[in-house]
Amino acid sequence: MKQETKTELLKKAVLLAEKTKHVFIASVNGYGIPHIAASRRLSLDAKNNVVLTEWFCPGTMENLMGKNDNLAIAVWDAPNDIGYQLIGKAKKEEDTAYLNGYASNLGKKDVVPQIQRKVTVQIEKILDFKLTPHTDIERS
């Protein structure tokens, strides 16, 4: 059986994310406190970096672009128990859209995210992600 290249596996992860619309991002702040976020969109850029686009909460963005830029991304098709865990580092953040005052409680800590962001992630490892027994051996 031929081993798939990193690019082939990343493309499969992106296609799976398009199908499921469920992408989970695990990040950690500078104190080691974990945080889970979700996204519907995952894509690849010209350099085969993963790109996450969503209305991320401020805590997620602080983690991704803070002192500890390590993160894991899980894409999983639960009914078929097929998935990928992408491990890498957040490299770049871009603001892509603004709500312009949608939330009436602007200035308060619990405000709804007002900025859609695109986060570019350099993937270092690709692992299986599923319920059935599996190893943590890199796929690429």
Please tell me about this protein's structure.
With 140 residues, the chain is α+β, with helices and mostly antiparallel strands. It has two helices and seven strands; from the N terminus they run αββββαβββ. A seven-stranded antiparallel sheet has the order 2-1-5-6-7-4-3. β3 and β4 form a beta hairpin. The longest helix is centred in the first third of the chain and has 15 residues. The radius of gyration is 16 Å and the shape is globular. The model has no long low-confidence stretch (mean pLDDT 84).
Task: Provide a compact summary of the structure.
The chain has 140 residues and is of the alpha+beta class.
Distinct helical segment count: 2
User: Total number of β-strand segments?
Assistant: 7
Instruction: Provide the β-strand percentage band.
Output: 35-45%
Widest sheet: strand order?
2-1-5-6-7-4-3
| N-to-C series of helices and strands | HEEEEHEEE
Shape: globular
**Rounded average pLDDT:** 84
Task: Please state the structural category.
Answer: alpha+beta
Largest sheet: 7 strands, antiparallel
Q: How many angstroms does the end-to-end distance come to? A: 14 Å
Low-confidence segments, ≥5 residues, pLDDT <50?
none
Radius of gyration: 16 Å
The percentage helix is 10-25%
